[in-house]
TrEMBL record:
Organism lineage string: Bacteria, Pseudomonadati, Pseudomonadota, Alphaproteobacteria, Hyphomicrobiales
Native species: Rhizobium leguminosarum
Subcellular location: Cell membrane
One cellular component term from this protein's GO annotations in UniProt: plasma membrane
The entry's keywords: Cell membrane, Membrane, Transmembrane, Transmembrane helix
Transmembrane segments: 6-26, 38-58, 70-88, 109-132, 144-169, 181-200
Protein name: Lysine transporter LysE
GO biological process, one term: amino acid transport
One Pfam family recorded for the sequence: LysE
Topological type in the membrane: Multi-pass membrane protein
Length: 201
């Protein structure tokens, strides 16, 4: 129990820090619906849980981090650039009805969240470092840790999506809404450029 509590507290600090997962969730929250929010949140949570489990079973192989870092940065940069362009070109429209939506859309948003979380170059190194400091995780507690990571990430990103989807925010003046979309798109593009500069160029 103390180990799992330590994991939860450490991961809570990672969750609240701005990063690509948050940017993608906010991008989806621009046009809110329960289906969109839950799909992307569950995708991000699944990706974080998978990264946690992979780190737990391979924490002693530090070369894994170096090999994944470059490719993860390229994939994540591509996702962020694509999302930034989509958001910048998106016309303003009324919020859709609060419904689950099509299975195809839900799958795409889940895949978007999953790919973003898995390609985040900070995720696996964070978990590897944590598990190297606490080797008991890799000797039988990896599954429990992954479950905790999933529940924490899913709860947090669903909450963030709900907060930024409340009617008061969605009914802001058109100028403010356009500004918010432009700032978010610019943040995603800038984050993608920083990743490429650090890990590729």
């Amino acid at each position: 129990m103390p180990l799992l509590t330590s994991l939860a507290l450490s991961y809570a600090l990672v969750l609240v820090a701005p990063g690509p997962n948050l940017l993608i969730v906010l991008r989806v929250a621009v046009r809110p619906s329960w289906g969109r929010r839950l799909s992307v949140a569950s995708g991000v949570a699944s990706g974080a849980a998978i990264a946690s489990y992979l780190a737990a079973i391979g924490a002693t192989t530090l070369n894994m981090v170096d090999n994944l870092d470059l490719w993860a940065s390229v994939v994540l940069s591509s996702i962020l650039f694509y999302s930034a362009v989509r958001l910048a070109r998106r016309p303003l429209a009324g919020a859709p009805a609060q419904q689950l939506g099509s299975d195809s859309l839900s799958l795409r948003l889940y895949s978007l969240g999953l790919a973003t979380a898995l390609s985040n170059p900070l995720s696996v190194p964070f978990f590897v470092g944590l598990y190297l400091a606490q080797p008991d995780f890799s000797t039988g507690m990896g599954e429990a840790a992954a479950c905790i990571i999933f529940l924490m990430a899913f709860s947090w990103f669903t909450l963030v999506g709900c907060v930024f989807s409340i009617p008061v925010i969605q009914r802001l003046d058109t100028i403010w809404t356009k500004t918010a979309q432009a700032v978010l798109a610019a943040a995603m593009g800038l984050y993608g450029l920083i990743l490429l500069y650090k890990h590729v160029l």
